[in-house]
Design brief:
This protein has about 270 residues and is α/β, with parallel strands linked by helices. The protein is built from eight helices and seven strands, in the order E-H-E-H-E-H-E-H-E-H-E-H-E-H-H. It has one domain: P-loop containing nucleotide triphosphate hydrolases (Rossmann fold), CATH 3.40.50.
Length: about 270
């Protein structure tokens, strides 16, 4: 269903965790062929999905044109690993490396059902390249003061990229992550978020639960853990993922209708 980016200019909001879980969910529950691209030098996705790594690192997407991707697909989930060397790309010339990356991701999109990209927690060349190559973006948001303040900046980045470089880019949703329902401060922050960005905030949230990092540490998604807290966490995570998938599919369908209508209009004038 296209290229999906998990992104936020604020670190520590859970984008790598959600990238890993959403990719596992697509592969395990929907039988999708998923390619995960880890663009973060912290390499959290790569540690969690290391057994799915292929012979091509994520850095090669910026430097090696015309790779043949079909032989890379070894299982339902394929990882292009991150590395510390990705940081060097921030010094590269955007007009040189971003078109190469965009072309490579488009080629991957033709081979896989989904391409999921985890980005670094800062606006730079890698985050910009991911948004320019994407169809949809998801923004995990932690309901703390600094995270809420950064939401406006992230939205400006997304819609700036949409306006200037990638008109097909859509914000699939903002996900309230690591929510503490007992915190009056976080509940107030959630109300403020919904008040200001109601059309973007998903009507579901993921609470702070120990089962989610426990599953990540064990190398399994939370829904495979046999404990009560895991079942509660799974219910929240899976509800969010179902909503995201539905929004992405609806946006893609709407885009197809617009393109088809534009094509018919063009034919009628010829």
């Amino acid at each position: 269903m296209g290229v999906l980016v998990f992104s936020n200019q604020k670190g520590g909001v859970g984008k790598s965790t959600l990238s890993v879980l959403f990719s596992r969910w697509l592969a395990d529950r929907h039988g999708a062929r998923v390619c995960v691209i880890d663009l973060d030098t912290q390499c959290n996705c790569s540690r969690s999905l290391g057994r799915f790594a292929c012979r091509v690192p994520a850095s090669a997407l910026f430097a090696t044109p015309a790779l043949r991707w079909a032989p890379v697909v070894a299982s339902s989930l394929t990882l292009l690993e991150g590395s510390k060397q990705l940081a060097d790309l921030e010094l590269a010339r955007p007009e040189t490396v971003i078109p190469v990356f965009r072309s490579q991701v488009a080629a991957l999109d033709r081979v896989f059902d989904w391409v999921v990209i985890d980005t670094p927690p800062a606006l730079g060349l890698r985050m910009s390249a991911a948004l320019i190559a994407a169809d949809s973006v998801v923004c995990p948001v932690e309901l703390e003061e600094y995270s809420i303040v950064g939401v406006t900046d992230m939205l400006k980045t997304i819609f700036g990229v949409q306006r200037r470089y990638n008109p097909r880019l859509r914000l699939a949703g903002m996900v309230a992550n690591r929510f503490n329902p007992h915190s009056l401060r976080q509940r107030a922050a959630l109300q403020e978020l919904v008040l200001n960005y109601s059309e973007f905030v998903l009507p579901a949230k993921i609470s702070t639960r120990s089962a989610i990092p426990e599953g990540i540490a064990a190398g399994v998604p939370v829904w495979q853990l046999a404990k009560t807290s895991a079942r509660q966490a799974s219910a929240e995570v899976l509800e969010v993922f179902e909503l995201l998938k539905l929004r992405i599919e609806d946006a893609r369908s709407a885009g197809s209708v617009v393109q088809a209508t534009a094509g018919l209009a063009k034919e009628s004038t010829q």
